[in-house]
Amino acid sequence: MDQLRRLFGGGTTPDRADPIDPAELEAFERERELELLRNEAAGHDELIQRQLKYARFAWQPPAQGSERRADDGERSSDE
After folding, report:
1. Its pTM surpasses 0.70
2. Across the chain, which distance is largest between two alpha carbons, in Å?
3. For residue 55, what is the DSSP state?
4. Are the C-beta atoms of 41 and 34 separated by less than 8 Å?
């Protein structure tokens, strides 16, 4: 049972007496996210990196149609 408590973080309290500075925490989180992105990018080969780099310039076909349907505004003949 102690293993489950330790695994899920129950039963222990942090020994940190000073409060965490929000700016410091945000800087730490930003650095961690950048590190994760760098590690993820390092795992891609050259083709995938190039595709991701230029994905925003890819041609998108124009949207066809709209939210309106053919029978909008018309009443059925049964009514």
Report:
1. no
2. 76
3. G
4. no
Cα separation of 65 and 79, whole Å?
Answer: 28
What is the spatial distance between Cα 73 and Cα 67, in angstroms, rounded to a whole number?
A: 13
Question: Rg of the chain's alpha carbons, rounded to an integer?
Answer: 27
How many residues appear in the chain? Answer: 79
Query: pLDDT per residue over 35-64, tens digit each?
Result: 998 888 888 888 988 898 899 899 888 888
Query: Are 44 and 52 in contact, with CB atoms under 8 Å apart?
Result: yes
- Residue located via tokens 């330790």: 6
CA distances from 74 to 15, 44, 65, 66, 67 (A): 70, 54, 18, 17, 15
